[in-house]
Amino acid sequence: MSFSAELPEGIRSRLLQAGFELFEQGYDRRFYNSMSKRLIDGSEIGAFDYQYTYKYHSGRGKSRGTHFQSVFWAYCEDLRLPHFRLHPEVPLFHDIAKAFGMQDINFESHPQFSRKYLLRGEDEAKVRLRFDPSFLSFLEQHAPCCAEGSGPQLIVWRDDQQVSPEKMPDWLRFGEEWVQRLRLRRV
């Protein structure tokens, strides 16, 4: 893998153009500690650390906070993903939001997944096709994470969690498993 203190501009630009919500939150956004590699089939995968700062109101007035996370990314023409966003469900907050019409794609066949995650997408039918039963079972067996996909691009992260250098190989394997499970099969 190639390493860089900053995320290479070409990769950064491609990720920002995908319209991922993660990269539109807050301000003082920073992409750093990048590693990537090109696979034999022309796909690219990698990981980087990402942070952004946000403002919120507390009982003592306005405050600031910063989120830090490690993000797995993939660029693979065989993905052709419908635009989707997946993140752990926050019961009270999401129940209120759903009452006001927020979308949540649930699967009767996988109630554990449906309780664990909030899944949204522009084309629900296409999202349902890509989240097949074996992929839903895979997600049920792992700690909750966040993900967004669009076309040939995928990002996966755990909110406000950075991966230590010792655990990075496992994190990359986990991301590669996502790619393999979401990749369109050639017949």
What keyword list fits this structure?
187 residues, alpha+beta, 8-stranded antiparallel beta sheet, 6 helices, 8 strands, globular
Could you explain the architecture of this structure?
With 187 residues, the protein is of the alpha+beta class. Strand 3 and strand 4 form a beta hairpin. 25% of the residues are buried.
What is this structure, in a nutshell?
This protein is an alpha+beta fold.
Q: State the helicity in percent bands.
A: 25-40%
The helix-and-strand class reads: alpha+beta
- Shape annotation: globular
Order of helices and strands: EHEEEEHHEHHEEH
Please list the strands of the largest sheet in the order they lie side by side: 1-2-3-4-8-7-5-6
Q: Count of helices?
A: 6
Largest sheet: 8 strands, antiparallel
Q: How many strands? A: 8
What's the oligomerization state? single chain
Name the beta content range: 35-45%
The termini sit apart by: 31 Å
Task: Write the SSE topology.
Blueprint: E1 2-6, H1 9-17, E2 27-38, E3 44-58, E4 61-75, E5 81-88, H2 91-99, H3 111-116, E6 117-121, H4 124-130, H5 133-140, E7 146-151, E8 153-157, H6 168-182
Antiparallel strand pairs: 1-2, 2-3, 3-4, 4-8, 5-6, 5-7, 7-8
